[in-house]
Specification:
The protein is built from ten helices and twelve strands. It is an alpha/beta fold. A five-stranded parallel beta sheet has the order 10-9-11-1-12, with helices on both faces. Strands 3-2-4-5 form a four-stranded parallel beta sheet, sandwiched between helices. Strands 7-6-8 form a three-stranded parallel beta sheet, sandwiched between helices. The longest helix is centred in the N-terminal third of the chain and has 17 residues.
C-alpha cells in the first residue's frame, strides 16, 4: 500500500454531549450521591453504551418497564421523555420519580397537547419505535399519526386537511425532515408548522459541522451507539456531504484498520450522547497510526445549559417511603 503523503484529522465542533444529555446524566449521578444506590432508571438514560455501563457501576439499575421497580423506590425517566401513562404507572407503583426528560422534548410534548386540545390532526415526523416518538405520541394518541420519512406521506389520511400540523422527533436529520415536510405540504397545502423548530439545536449544530468537513474527508468516524438516532444521522449526513466513507463506532477498538487504506484525511465527530473521553480514545488511536495532525472545524458555539430536574431538590427517599407506608396503613 502506498502511504498517503499527508495525514490529518478534521475534528468537528461542536460534538458530543448536548445540554439535555448532560442534565440527564448528572441527574442520575446526583440521585445516587443524594439517596444512595440503587436508583432505578426507566430505559437507557441516554443512548450510549459507555454512559449506561458507567452509571451501572455506580449503582444505577436500568429497567425496561416501570413495573420492574420495587415499591417505595426512586425511578428516573430518561432524556427521551415518557407518555403520561408512564407517570400514572409510577404513581400506582408507589414510586418517587425524577423526570430527566430533555426540556426540548418537553416542548414538543406541550405542543402536541396544545394542538390536540384545539382538535388538530398532528403529523409526527419520526422513527417508529423510538422512545421519544412513543412518549410524544402518548400525549395525544387519538390525534397523532406517525410519518416515518417521505415514503409514508402518500398513505397519510386526516379528518380535515385545513386543520393539520406537523411536529417532529428532536434528533432527526434536518434535511430529511424538511423533505418530509415538503411532501406533506404538497399533500396538505394548509399544513401548519410548529411555533418553533422541533429539531434540537445540538442535532442541527452537529450536522452542520459534519457537512462542513464531509466534503474534505476521505473517511468520517462518528463516535456513538447504534441505537442513538442523532449519531446514526451523522453518518448519513457525512456521506451526503461528500465523505467517501463513514462509520459509526462506540469505541476506538471498533475501528477497522482497513478503513484507512488510501486515506489521507479523517473526519471525527460524536453524537449528542457521547462523552468526550471516547473521542479522545479515537484521536489517540488515529495518532498512533500517523494521523496526529488535528484541525478543529467549528460551525457554532454552544452555551445552552439546563437546570437539574426540580425533584432533586426534595428528599425523594422520604417521599417514596411515606407513599409506601401510607398505602400500607390505608
Amino acid at each position: 500500500m502506498t502511504a498517503p503523503t499527508a495525514r490529518k484529522v478534521l475534528l468537528a465542533a461542536p460534538r458530543g454531549y448536548c445540554a439535555g444529555v448532560d442534565r440527564a446524566v448528572i441527574a442520575v449521578e446526583k440521585a445516587l450521591e443524594q439517596y444512595g444506590a440503587p436508583v432505578y432508571v426507566r430505559h437507557e438514560i441516554v443512548h450510549n453504551k459507555y454512559v449506561v455501563k458507567t452509571l451501572e457501576k455506580k449503582g444505577a439499575i436500568f429497567v425496561d418497564e416501570t413495573a420492574e421497580v420495587p415499591e417505595g423506590n426512586i425511578v428516573i425517566f430518561s432524556a427521551h421523555g415518557v407518555a403520561p401513562v408512564v407517570h400514572e404507572e409510577a404513581e400506582r407503583g408507589k414510586l418517587a420519580t425524577i423526570d430527566a426528560t430533555c426540556p426540548l422534548v418537553t416542548k414538543v410534548h406541550k405542543e402536541a397537547v396544545r394542538f390536540a386540545k384545539e382538535d388538530y390532526d398532528i403529523l409526527l415526523i419520526g422513527h417508529e419505535g423510538h422512545e421519544e416518538v412513543i412518549g410524544t405520541s402518548g400525549e395525544a394518541p387519538e390525534h397523532i399519526t406517525l410519518v416515518d420519512g417521505p415514503g409514508d406521506v402518500a398513505g397519510v389520511e386526516v379528518r380535515d386537511p385545513d386543520k393539520v400540523v406537523w411536529l417532529s422527533q428532536t434528533t432527526l436529520s434536518v434535511d430529511e425532515t424538511m423533505e418530509t415536510v415538503g411532501a406533506l405540504q404538497q399533500k396538505f397545502p394548509n399544513l401548519i408548522s410548529p411555533p418553533s423548530d422541533d429539531i434540537c439545536y445540538a442535532t442541527q449544530n452537529r450536522q452542520t459541522a459534519v457537512k462542513q468537513m464531509g466534503a474534505d474527508a476521505d473517511l468520517v468516524i462518528v463516535v456513538g451507539s447504534k441505537n442513538s438516532s442523532n449519531s446514526v444521522r451523522l453518518v448519513e449526513v457525512a456521506l451526503g456531504a461528500g465523505a467517501k466513507d463513514a462509520h459509526l463506532v462506540d469505541y476506538a477498538e471498533e475501528i477497522d484498520e482497513a478503513w484507512l487504506e488510501g486515506v489521507s484525511t479523517v473526519g471525527v465527530t460524536s453524537g449528542a450522547s457521547v462523552p468526550e473521553i471516547l473521542v479522545e480514545g479515537v484521536l489517540e488511536w488515529l495518532a498512533q497510526r500517523g494521523y496526529g495532525d488535528v484541525e478543529t472545524i467549528t460551525s457554532a458555539q454552544e452555551s445552552i445549559t439546563f437546570s437539574l430536574p426540580k425533584e432533586l431538590r426534595r428528599d425523594l427517599r422520604a417521599e417514596a417511603a411515606a407513599k409506601a407506608a401510607g398505602d400500607d396503613q390505608a
